[in-house]
Amino acid sequence: APHFPPHRAVTGCAMTSERRSARRSMPLVALFAALVASRAGVADGSRAAAESFDEEALVRPLPDGKAVFVAHFRQSAPLASRHFESFPKAMAQIARETRVAEAELSFTQGRWDDKRWGRAPVGTKPIGAELWASFHAPPANASVRSSATDSADAHSEDWDALTAHMGGLFCASLSRMNAREIVVEPALAFSRWNGARDATRSTRRKKHGSLPSESVCVENLTPFLKLLPCRDRAGVAEALASRTTLFGAPYVSMSTLVETTKSGDDGEWRVVLTQTLTVALDRAAAQETTDDAEKPETRLSRLLGLDRKGKEGISGACVAARLSRVHAETHAPFAAAATSDVAGAPREHTALCERSASKDASKALVRLKTWDLANMDARPPFANGNGFFDVKLSRDAGAPEPRAPLVGYAPEFLAERHLTGSGNRDGGVSIELRRHLPSSDRKPLDTRVRVFQALPWYVRVFAHTLKVTFDGVDANVAASRSVTDLGRNHFDASSAPELLGDGEVEGLRWSPSRDRTRPSVLEAQLFVPSSVSVVRVSARFEKAFLRTEEFPPDANRGFDVAPAVVAFPPPRVIRFFRNLEGMDALESPLLDRMEGLVVGGNTQPAEVPERVYLNGLLLTLPTPDFSMPFNVITLVCTAMSLLSGGVLSALTRRPAWAGFKEQKAEQKKKLAELAKRAKA
Fold it and tell me: Would you give the DSSP letter of residue 142?
């Protein structure tokens, strides 16, 4: 509390007037001191909080007349804070309540075409909704929230709480992930891996759930944008104003990643929120007609449908953003330029990459232009841009439209999954990995692959039918080790058997299903030599009979099977040289993630594997004729109504009333005769 000095001793009217003035001024002084103290506390709190917010965007032309736009947002704040300046308080509360170490929720509509478009800038996600998470162990000196007796029960409670909170926050039906027949615990998938033989297994338990039939709509995007400090009113998120354009695209995916990490400087626990939205747009449909017919062009605002919203681009950076940048990555015959100089001159970086055509051995120059939206606040609006930032994408009309991605973007393997067999009883599932060599100069390398496949309980897989083939040659699955042995320290890679050009199943984990209790899980680590072109993993299964109440409303459509996940080592991607002469290194969390580096780690590899989600499956099960109960009920009700009506009529009819009319007629006739006699 502020300390006020004592008043002077005065007499008479002077004393009275001074006391009155002092009494009047004391509340004002106290209020002013309280305001100063509160402002100082807020300033100290904001400095102690050390919150940060970065926003970035990337646009890249794709072959086949498409373009990809990526909006990337990253926020960080101390985990122990109770009040935040810009960080969403709800996410911090969820992280503290569920003891989450890492959790990622994604909503996806459509499928990314790896063969035609190449690798996605920040990875792809499966169709529908997917949630996976790892949790910290409960503290040893604290009791669990409920009567859980071990860490498994504690993690189950954390998972239930996480699905409830995230489902309510994002307006999604994630409560279905609480069912034990959907949730699995992967051992290798969703872990960091550098491609070595010994698996990098985390000590934290992970849980995974997928809902392929979950529909994605604006109700999921609105909470996604509400987590941002400026929402979609300013900054990069302003480019996401047209909802019809986003959800009318062939592929749109939005993911939310929550991490709790310990800072290396002071050991403070921090919560990091990373939000990413990737959308593939039709560049040809948004193309504009210009006076220069040799360079057909399109603007980013028109590509994202901002012109239909009355906007001409991005008005400026978000006031809470530490970094606010827009990147444009192009290669011949494409080019990118800003429509005005409101954001200043771009910073340009280059890299060399092989072309996709095998007959063309030339190198393609990949250009990366970066504009800083923070410069817009210091510049007045210009007449040619009206104060809005926009990017113009053009293509040289003399060059043909590319039909394949560059070698640096092309995946090394193409993965597909399909069902085998016919009928309502038996079937099979097959996963095929085919080596993809877009250029003759690109030599195949030995690699390792991780396969993760979870099937629902009503798909009863026979373990003895599991088969792994390398170019048609069966591998010895029975002799493979468990994945729990891959991370043990006593294993020496030099003592492994020599591989004579054949593939090997280095690790295998098989968890059979239980009816209405848990799904079956297959995890395998495969070694694929450079001489192998095709790898197949297949198994046979039997379809179970379901109860009537277990069928969905659209049972005749089929049952959605969650996509399988194939993990590859960190890929060989295009990396730009960011250390330009006379300039500081370009800091960009989005580029770090694209290039497989630790965010802010100064070119340190993140060891994040490339995860490829295979196509979903539609499985038909023995389905009863649900119209038969309706037909039976209708027939029985009709027969019962006829029968009961006849019985009721027979029981309620009075026999004395059968000749009532005849008796009345005879009585009238007798009365008439008596009347005649009386008159006579």
Answer: S
